[in-house]
Design brief:
- The structure is a single chain.
- By secondary structure, the protein is mainly beta.
- The protein has two domains: 150 residues, no CATH class; 94 residues, Neocarzinostatin-like (Immunoglobulin-like, Sandwich).
- 9% of the residues lie in helices and 45% in strands.
- The strands form five sheets. A six-stranded antiparallel β-sheet has the order 9-8-7-6-11-12. Strands 1-18-15-14-13 form a five-stranded antiparallel β-sheet, covered by helices on one side.
- The radius of gyration is 20 Å and the shape is elongated.
Length: 274
């Protein structure tokens, strides 16, 4: 049965550097997201809520103040069937000279971040490189740029972070190689799969009037679901939905979020083959 899970999350930054390193520092930084407004408040330890927070709050809860990360798309390589790939160069500003970084990846197939590469440094332009010197990562040539290749299904968020050896400096980003986004009259509705087969789908709305009453209407292979929620002071909201329907192994979740003159729509496949 399709079920709705609704909660709007805070997006404040965590203050102060952590004392832990690598994935442990990342997990600590993600803890304790605060609810701004909710149509229904879920228990703090609810697995679906925690999973949604780990995706929605990834950037905001991790970044060390003063650091920023920029991706530069450089190629569109071939992708496995049913996926889309993007390749990026990585640039960081605000990091003290000489810091060595570890690249962490957090795919939705994992329960916690995992280390992908150690010993990354920055060149004079702030680009992440493998210098090939003692204590740094190496490649087929010195000072080789680190290419970040992201491959994902429709609506799949790709989370990653660069963390210093002592955990003092952290900068993170989320990219969606194949986004599922609907736009209408300045409003936007995005669907993110929180699990590999879209067993849980995150719906993010933005661009609505502050405090607007947003009417949600969704259909998952004939099973319909409706809600009304209140956009926060920034005109946004986050909604979680479980689209699976009893007796079916695959289908499509489609619907809209309407308030005033805008009503963006989305559709995302779920289940086997999605």
């Amino acid at each position: 049965m399709m079920a709705g899970i609704i909660e709007c999350f805070a997006s404040g930054r965590r203050g102060g550097p952590g004392a832990l390193i690598g994935a442990a520092a990342v997990l600590l930084a993600l803890g304790g997201a605060r609810s701004l407004r909710a149509q229904r408040t879920l228990p703090a330890a609810d697995p679906a809520t925690l999973l949604m927070r780990s995706i929605v709050n990834w950037n905001q809860k991790l970044d060390t103040p003063g650091l920023s990360l920029r991706l530069k798309r450089i190629a569109r390589p071939g992708s496995p069937p049913g996926t889309k790939a993007e390749t990026f160069e990585v640039y960081v500003t605000g990091l003290p000279a000489g810091e060595k970084l570890t690249l962490l990846e957090f795919p939705i197939t994992r329960r916690e971040p995992e280390e992908a590469m150690e010993g990354i440094t920055l060149n004079a332009e702030g680009e992440a490189i493998c210098a090939g010197t003692p204590g740094t990562c190496s490649s087929d040539k010195p000072n080789d740029p680190v290419d970040l290749v992201l491959i994902g299904a429709s609506g799949e968020p790709m989370r990653f972070a660069l963390v210093s050896a002592d955990g003092k400096y952290r900068v993170a980003d989320t990219e969606v190689p194949d986004p599922v986004i609907g736009r209408d009259h300045g409003c936007r509705l995005e669907a993110l799969r929180a699990l590999p087969h879209a067993e849980l789908v995150i719906l993010r709305g933005s661009g609505f009037a502050p405090g607007a009453k947003v009417r949600l209407r969704f259909d998952s292979d004939g099973e319909r679901h409706g809600e009304e929620l209140t956009a926060n002071a920034q005109g946004s909201f986050v909604l979680g939905m479980e689209p699976f329907v009893k007796g079916k192994t695959s289908g499509t979740l489609s619907g809209s979020a309407k308030a005033g003159t805008c009503g963006p729509r989305i559709a995302i496949a779920w289940g086997a083959g999605s």
